[in-house]
Amino acid sequence: MEQKRLIYMDHAATTYTKPEVVETMMPFFTEQFGNASSVYTFGRKSKAAVETAREQVAKAIGAKSDEIYFVNGGSEADNWAIKGIAWAHRDKGNHIITTKIEHHAVLHVCEYLENNGFEVTYLSVDENGLIDLDELKRAITDKTILITIMFANNEIGTIQPIAEIGKIARERGIIFHTDAVQAVGNVAIDVEKMNIDLLSLAGHKFYGPKGIGALYIRKGIKIENLIHGGGQERRRRAGTENLPGIVGLGKAIEMATENLEEHNEKIRKMRDRLLNGIMEKIPYTKLNGHPEKRLPGNINVSFKFIEGESLLLMLDQLGICASTGSACSSGSLDPSHVLLAIGLPHEIAHGSLRLSLGDLTTEEDIDYVLEVLPKIVQRLREMSPLYEDFIKKGEN
Amino acid sequence: MKKKVVIGMSGGVDSSVAAYLLLQQGYDVIGITMQIWPENKAVEEREGGCCSLTAVNDARRVADKLGIYYYVMNFKEVFEKKVINYFVDEYLAGKTPNPCIACNKHIKFDEFLKKAQMLGADYISTGHYAKVVKDEETGRYLLLRSRDDRKDQTYALYNLTQYQLSHTVMPLGDYTKDRIREIADELGLIVANKPDSEEICFVPDNDYAGFIKERVPDKVKPGNFVDVNGNVIGKHKGIVHYTIGQRKGLGLALGKPVFVVDIIPEKNLVVIGDEKEVFKDTLYAEDINLIPFDKLNGDLRVTAKIRYSAKEAPATISPYKNGVIVKFDTPQRAITKGQSVVFYNGDVVVGGGIIKDVL
Predict the structure, then answer these.
(1) What is B221-274's CATH number?
(2) Cβ contacts of residue B203 below 8 Å, gap of 6+?
(3) pLDDT bucket at B227, cuts 50 / 70 / 90
(4) Which residue intervals define the domain tRNA-specific 2-thiouridylase MnmA-like central in the entry (chain B) (predicted)?
(5) Does the ipTM exceed 0.90?
(6) Which residue of A has its CA nearest to B112?
(7) Which residues of chain A are modeled with pLDDT < 70?
(8) Hey, which bits of A233-319 come out as E strands?
(9) Is A321 assigned a catalytic role?
(10) Beta-carbon neighbour count of residue A262 at 10 Å?
(11) Looking at the structure, do residues A52 and A119 belong to the same domain, yes or no?
């Protein structure tokens, strides 16, 4: 097995950590390693670095720094937000509203709560992956304590009308959480203007390190703790601070939001060239997700008559990292709940491919993918009984 | 250009070493683990079972060590349809199926072969103990018994067609299991000392009846035990609990050892008799596949085996209707409908079929 060139088109899964970010982190491994919660001066410097990072994160989303809590990633942030609100407000009601296309870190938490006496409404989405605001309004009852709706979808890239959702939640006095793991660094976010009460984010989606994330909790929101123990994070999240991670997260989110528009423009241009090329060169292809309201780097397409699984493996053999459906723990693929929710039939959902572009993507990468992808799809179609049937029907 | 082989890797020692041997033989090797039955907690939670997470992790580590591409592919739907449903239906029909044979026929050497070809493979490979050789005289591909008689797996492979055989490489056929373990050890493969798996992969606790009851609870109904003359002699728990020749677990105290001699699904009856009634010498089999030739034109002397663990016995096979009649020289114990009968000529697998009737 020889490793050919590497074309990384899976930025939605994770990104590399930028060298500038790593550089900022390095001293906190070897020199300034003191425990941020200790009393001596050496530790205080660590504490100061944590607070600087907290300000950086707060600024990036329009929050105040004492509303930011560091956690170990997006899944923890989602778990904390939803379970913490549910348990803290169960005297007021037991109803939660979410959508059918959330990440499993939200869906499985909701299922867990359903098994523990809560009721959950899963809003449907239209063929572009957008929720219906009227359906949301109708779903609200006097028992509703939480609305949790993702900012942007990880698979199809659709961006929800978050400000409108926030407005509805605010008017009805319901807490609003958004999983913004895919959105941070790709979309401008202002928790004040958008009336967001809780927001999850993860460092490794915007060129920060893995293993660090944050939950924004609006001041005054009552929430139970998820991780119990020491008094870190103002007694709300126990565990010795991941100092280098926190510093890296701060630096990464600062860099990601500083050049947001410029960065998005560049990525979007490449994305559109790739997407247009695919649609032009490969017949019987469908774009999944909203044509405009989508993440700048996201492409999700279904190629009729083939299986995404074989396609992915072929791409891997050519050094192209892409994804399809949702990966399960072992790495095998089931049809994605998101694609099924936007109404794709089972067999077409199976034939989907997600390419997510980012800072590592070059124009040469686009050329290469446009050169090899049509050939692979054609080859797989030639071996597909579905395609054979289709062609025969066409001839009759 | 190197020929490309896709090998099915279970995470066990056999397929791991097979992958290594293929590399040694100069193939371009891709390892695939077939995800077939992950929804079952019992399978997932226990260590080392085929297609559990542990198995996938083991296979992935072996692939990494060997430096080959490795993927997990999803076969859940087709496995459910072609193997599990078949398994359940056969039991409900009073038969005793062999799901490994169905899996080889429909999954490993059909769906898996197709998927491998999509990846550009020239051949597929497995860690089976068996040999595939081409008979240069006739031009036909033959399936031969493996060198290690104790591990020989040709019984479960009799359905292979000429097309499948011509696209299959089986590198373990010339090795003993002990030698395979040694090689794994020499290579420092983590799986060198993993125990052999012998049970059915999707029923790891061997409780077939429990498995079937869980899937079709209302179809497993208690009924009567009867003797060979039709007299009711007790209550049974549902026919899926029994197989021909069974003695244990009947819960009958008749003052002598008794055995299941027949199962009548239409009447939900289990027939009980003496051990001598379990011995029969003639059977009729259908769904026949023959390997060295396409068609059986007259009587043929073979040795035949009526289940995986049975000893081969001399028999004559002759064409009859859509199948063959197999007449053993001496009566065989517990010839069971649903099981496969496999024919050999020395080390050559002549073919086999599924037992439809015991005469």
Answers:
(1) 2.30.30.280
(2) B211
(3) very high
(4) 211-274
(5) no
(6) A310
(7) 1-4, 325-333, 395-396
(8) 285-287, 298-303
(9) no
(10) 9
(11) yes
